[in-house]
Amino acid sequence: MKMKTKVKVIxxxxxGNHLTQASRRMGWDVVVVDADPxxxxxxxxxxxPQRYGKWDESIKLYTPDKxxxxxxxxxxxxxxxxxxxxxxxxxxxxxxxxxxxxxxxCTPDMKGVLEFNEELKKHPGTIxxxxxxxxxxxxxxxxxxxxxxxxxGEILTLDVEFREHWRGIFSAHSWLAGPxxxxxxxxxxxxxxxxxxxxxxxxxxxxxxxxxxxxxxxVKSFFDxxxxxxxxxxxxxxxxxxxxxxxxxRVIQDVITFPVKKWARAxxxxxxxxxxxxxxxxxxxxxYQIEGSEMVEKMVAKKRPDDFYCETLHYKDLLDGKxxxxxxxxxxxxxxxxxxxxxxxxxxxxx
Length: 351
Hints:
The chain is an alpha/beta fold. It has helices spanning 14-25, 37-52, 81-92, 113-120, 138-148, 167-171, 192-196, 199-210, 304-319, 332-348; strands at 6-10, 29-33, 60-62, 74-77, 98-101, 127-130, 155-163, 216-228, 231-243, 248-254, 261-268, 271-280, 283-290, 296-301.
């Protein structure tokens, strides 16, 4: 009889709940670990039942002193970025088949990355991924497939924007009064627009790869910073990117835009395609036109939990060998490149 996939989720916050529910939706066995007993209590009594209807009694909750070690197929680290690399290093020593690190990969100073990469060499059987879930959502998988087939001819330019006022984040984290009470309000800890909405940079990089742009050769970045109580964060992060093929594109990320705008556009020599994330309560929108044909607008059904379910489906395909890590949009290499761009951007801004 085939054994059930065993998953350990580290972090009982918002992301930890999403990863747990998606894993249970897959039929996987899940344990959750958090250093704060109150966070585990909040997960069981508030977040999980409010989001998904009721608590799942099969989920086992632990504090680190009682944390089970070893024997897990998947370990998912959904903690803030400023503690993630230390936990990732420890997780590697358990030899999971797949290690999920939430985005952004780490803090802008890249602390712990070198040590982690050295340890990873000792664990060739472990797949490491970074949780940029949007890139494996149904609508963007369809978009990327059309770019790969050159449906719109040669892609001339790419633009991606993740512009989202973080009131949505704080409404989902009712226990937080504002950005100063979480890493989100501190760019040095991996928060701010640069880190939190780095989905946009990641998506641009992935779609550029699919479109044959070649590697990024030059980046110009600009930030606007704000101090709020003890917090300091960039509320606007912009990037101009140039690639080996000479193609140029643009990325904008902010935590001030409302209503939300999550958008990507690829302009080709024979048409265009746009993705609008959460275009309606029904899901995402794909809008495209091949030159000489009618405009197509297609809704791709999606709810928020589906973002993480698509992620876990992708992980199953990686584990089953249906997808090679080098071809995965969630590969560690892509997540690391995004973090390097952010890190260099802050340095260029004098931070």
